[in-house]
Structures
1.
Amino acid sequence: MMRCPSLALLLLLSGAALGAQRLPSVAPATVGMSPQRIVRIHKGMQAFVDRNDVSGVVTLIAREGRLVDLHAVGFQDLESKKPMRTDTIFRIASMTKPITSVAVMMLYEEGKLLLPDPVSKYIPSFKGPRVVGTDAGMTVPARREITVRDLLTHRSGLTYGFLDRGPVGAAYRASGVSDGLTAPTATLAENVDKLAAAPLVGQPGAEFNYGLSTDVLGRLVEVVSGMPFDRFLRQRILEPLGMRDTGFEVPETKWSRLATVYAPDGAGGIRPMKDPESFDNAVMSPLSYYRAPKTYFSGGAGLTSTATDYSRFAQMLLNRGVLGGVRLLGPKTIELMSADHTSDVPPNFLIGPGGQFGLGFRVTTNVGASQTLGSEGMYGWSGIYGTNFWVDPKEQLIAVVMVQRYPGAPIAPAFQPLVYQAISRTTVTAR
């Protein structure tokens, strides 16, 4: 009887497709990293679990374009003792911002917008912004329009309602502006128009105010590209990079892989977050926000992903805009994005010592002032649930850490020196 090869072929192709999600693996020593010292990273992350600071952690390190270490400790769900897995899906919150920023710069490269363009050119509701005044209830005209660059660098005067306890945050709450992690029924266009009607917390370009600027960039992508924002990300970034587990919604077929998010229990431990739950003016929806169908796609906080998926995005950045033969951006655009764009404004605690902000992420400009191991020129960002990533062009290194705790546990500050102490050779060949 003749054997049918179709099943074997299907399995082979399926295995290749799944394997394509990961960077090629290599023994740590071949890229100048110590296997013995990598064990310290695993022990360090396990210590957070043992102290009941977090339920579990996934860490990933790649150097010279090859996967050095991918490790999971603890539990995806503590109550059921479901083990944390390397393919667990996490809410990455503000680690959405670099992906949205790349989308904007892709349109910039296509000549569809310029960084000095006023946002009102594309979103008319931002015409004639006003800034909160010194007297209660008073606003004054902004000295100039908000630009695309202002949005990319958080110099727009927009903020987050949960970060601002003054009149601007109150205006957001009064008009129902979503901070991006609730489950609003409004569309992106509707939420952005509400935001545009509120006063600014500061003059455009004058200071760094972290907030909803990147949600506005998501709307900008819709207007300029003529595509819904979620579709643009999927078709132009996520699918080309093979990021198959990254999206605004978690399908039912993957829901069992979504990690439980925890919060402090007030007694030195952690507890699962309810849905919804309020913390200091922030209303979080850790479950319903990620279920289909959705109408609001937050460019600043809406995506879920895995460590392996996000490593492909980070590797694309390290490769100066290309991965696996797919080029999203040119090298000079990556150079511009990872440059210092905020040294002329007052320091901000969210950027931290030794750093400035580029077009979508923090950039280390002074290693000594940063008070930790790293390299000048490294760049990356974090999420409010504790996730973090960075790209180090000097060491040809990327690192990703995934965890689910609100507010984020101090995993990233501990993870970074643990990664760098594992380097045994600091000179690698740029690829």
Note: The two ends are 50 Å apart (CA to CA).
2.
Amino acid sequence: MVVTPALREISRGSLWRKIEREHELVIVDALSPISFAASHLPGAINMPPERVDDLAERRIPDHDAEVVVYCAKPDCVSSVEVATRLIELGYRNVHHY
């Protein structure tokens, strides 16, 4: 049995400070490509849950990169699914917003 570490949360204020300071991080939008095309955070990459295994290595080659995964609203589960899968794939610095 594989145990996944607890998913770490990042607050709006902490994320905003990192963006303002141009802190090096990867922002992942976990919504569908259509939703991503309509609206997303500046600099975000799109990675819906069903594509994580296909896209993660190409879009986030550094497993130590700071990654923040977000979705449309607080009760959206896509961001939790993507963040959890990234951790399972060996990414070590994943946060959920």
Note: The chain is about 35% helix and 15% strand.
